[in-house]
Amino acid sequence: MSTEKTDLRRALRNRRNQLTPEEQRLAARKLAAKVVGTRLYRASRRIACYLPIDGEIDTRCIIEHIHRMRKICYLPAISRLSHDRLWFAKNQDGTELVRNRYGVLEPDVTTRDLVRARELDLILMPLVGFDDHGNRLGMGAGFYDLTLAFLRRRKGWRKPHIIGLAYDFQRINGIEADPWDVPLQGVVTDQAVYIY
Q1: Which helix (DSSP H) or strand (DSSP E) does residue 130 occupy?
Q2: pTM of the entire structure?
Q3: Where are the strands (E) in 65-175, listed by range?
Q4: Domain spans of the chain?
Q5: Are the C-beta atoms of residues 74 and 125 closer than 8 Å to each other?
Q6: Are 189 and 171 in contact (CB under 8 A)?
Q7: Distance CA 179, CA 33 (A)
Q8: Domain 3-195 top-level CATH class
Q9: 3-class DSSP state of 195
Q10: Backbone angles phi, psi at 36, to 5 degrees
């Protein structure tokens, strides 16, 4: 991992962790309004989201809207076999959440209740930084890139659609893409919708 990406990742994480609780709440409400207004969201039924950690923009308003619209909400869960990929579990009322080895909450379900990314319509994913070409700077572990690697082999894939969620200040100039990176189709922030 390059030092430049490590430094950039640290600076952006620090910036989002410096937001006040009120700034975070306001940004989360603005983000939710923009997400639910997109054509991709409206056309999707099986939607994966995430629970925020480490200052990530809050998605709880989006998750509540998914439930209100009677769409199906999924949350990522680390594979119990390979431990380097994500599967997705339904997040329904009453679903118990447990912390995985990274301290991230995920649904406490059996293996047979997990679905692959290719079974979803839309994946709303976290990021640390993004650029105007759909390149994403993640936390560095590569879970999403490994999980979505099958999309790099498809020409003009139809689903799942991949949209990043972030604060607008996480938009940066030119992230150098690695060969294994899966580009985003768009990013929704508290200030704008970017489609690539």
Answers
A1: strand 129-130
A2: 0.92
A3: 72-78, 86-90, 97-99, 105-107, 114-115, 122-126, 129-130, 136-137, 161-166
A4: 3-195
A5: no
A6: yes
A7: 34
A8: alpha beta
A9: strand
A10: -70, -15
